[in-house]
Amino acid sequence: MSLNNIQKIIRHIAAKIKANGFTRVAAALSIALTLMLAWLPLARAAAPDIKCPDGKMADGIERAGSSQYCVVIRKFEPAGASARVLLVFLHGDHGGSVELPVDSGTAFNLSQQLKATTIALQRPGYRSYFGVSDGTTSAQDDDYTPGNVEILAAALERLRTLNPGKKILLIGYSGGAAMTALLAGRFPASADAYLLAACPCDVPQWRQWRNALLGKADHWTHSLSPQGEVDNIKAGTRISLVVGNKDDDTLPKFSEAYVASLQTQGVKTRLTYAIGATHVSVQRSPEFFMLAQELAAALSR
Fold first, then answer.
1. What is the pLDDT of residue 241?
2. Residue range 237-257: mean pLDDT, rounded
3. Is residue 259 very low, low, confident or very high in pLDDT (cuts 50, 70, 90)?
4. Is 50 exceeded by the pLDDT of residue 39?
5. Which residue, 9, 85, 189, 204, shows the most beta carbons closer than 10 Å to its own?
């Protein structure tokens, strides 16, 4: 039903009210409101088409973003998926190349465990069998840059437009967790809650420790650090962190320091240790899925 037709019906109802007195006002207004509410979802769904630089449409199924920048995505929609929450997953560092498996991987597992529509988002500059995301990356993974964060924000804005009425839970792993934290500070409208798994949240300290451990001088010069941008995160933001107690890459102390800084800002945060989990296996830990479920449930209320 078009808006013009709804307006005609409302005018007709108004005429009836005038002719019959005010005893039926409540019923008439109720009918009008019902019709308007029925039309609103259709209006939201009619989001304008956007063509990505690679010629594909930013349809929320294969691509998300703007006419300037788009990222590759994969969508998992299990039977009986929640109508209230959209999960978006950001993968870790892989030197510019990543797989987006259609029937396995963390995003797929999240969709099955939480019974929620889940988007696997391919980070800027990364390539896979499904295409190349706009943005920059390198073999050294020094790509937590302002430009890449902005590209991710545009993708999330598009996903929100294409999923009206749904709250977004943004989940990041390792380097994806750092990007998730940066989005929470720089683009707070990107998501409604955040889960960081194995976060290298203090990038300079993490790189210094890694270089000393490996005997390298691999200094990053382009990446932002979540620890350095804590002041940008608004009080009341909902952020949870999980780290394996056997993580020998992004050590628990980097998550601990970040949580302590968030708490001084009045941010709703908690840190959970995944017992027995390593840097990689934290994505399969019960604690990881427990926190995701808790945040999704909170957003569904």
1. 98
2. 98
3. very high
4. no
5. 85
pLDDT of residue 37: 44
For strand 85-90 and strand 117-121, is the pairing parallel, antiparallel, or unpaired?
parallel
DSSP-assigned letters across all residues of the chain: --HHHHHHHHHHHHHHHHHH-STTHHHHHHHHHHHHHHHHHHHHH-PPP-B-TTS-B--SSSEEE-SS-EEEEEEE--TT--SSEEEEEE----TTB----SSSHHHHHHHHHHT-EEEEEPPTT-EETTEE-SS---TT-----HHHHHHHHHHHHHHHHHSTT-EEEEEEETHHHHHHHHHHHH-GGG-SEEEEES---SHHHHHHHHHHHHT-----SS---GGGGGGGSPTT-EEEEEEETT-SSS-HHHHHHHHHHHHHTT-EEEEEEETT--TTGGGGSHHHHHHHHHHHHHHH-
18 — pLDDT class (breaks 50, 70, 90): low
Task: Give yes or no for a contact between 295 and 264, defined as CB atoms under 8 angstroms apart.
Answer: no
pLDDT at 21: 62
